[in-house]
Amino acid sequence: MIRVLLAEDQTMVLGALSALLKLEPDIDVVGGVVDGEAAWRELQRLQPDVLVTDIEMPGLTGLELAQRIQRHALPVKVVIVTTFARPGFLRRALDAGVGGYLLKDAPAENLAEALRKVHRGGRAIDPQLAVEAWSEADPLNDRERQVLRLAGEGASAGDIARQLNLSQGTVRNYLSEAIGKLGVTNRIEAYRLARQKGWL
């Protein structure tokens, strides 16, 4: 049996995924959570074979969850199921060791097959997205990404500095670097463009 934990912040989608996978004779859904921090706790408690996660969730995003799993070398495979057909997200997911990346509008039977393939050590990636993912590199480093995300969510330089234990001058430098790399004129445009590309 493939033991699966589901992490999805939309309750209806979580229920639908669970119901769908429970129809499969070789898949056992051992739990379902609605945010990233709960997923992290349940991963350690339940020790599933595969985590199926969305990207945008409260607490930790699916990408941050995958990065944490990779850092702690947990023996769990990760499959992302998302609405975001953004090459930047896929690149970051692959860098974090994700085994599967599927879009929510893919045929339902693709999910069970993807879980089996990833569980066996293979990869299950949306083919069109895979082609696009390598056409444009993400210019931001992790710190620029963190600072830009917080700025785009309305945090001031002072707020960001306190949250990330940086000086305000360092925060302004990171924002300035991100704006320059993205070729825009201000932090709002930088945030919009980076989100659109899947770099945040």
TrEMBL record:
Molecular function (Gene Ontology), one example: DNA binding
This protein's record includes keyword Phosphoprotein: yes
Pfam families: GerE, Response_reg
Domain Response regulatory: 3-119
Source superkingdom: Bacteria
HTH luxR-type domain residues: 133-198
PROSITE patterns with a match to the protein in the record: HTH_LUXR_2, RESPONSE_REGULATORY
4-aspartylphosphate modifications at: D54
A GO biological-process term: regulation of DNA-templated transcription
TM annotation in the entry: none
Keywords: DNA-binding, Phosphoprotein
Protein name, as recorded: LuxR family two-component response regulator
Organism: Dokdonella koreensis DS-123
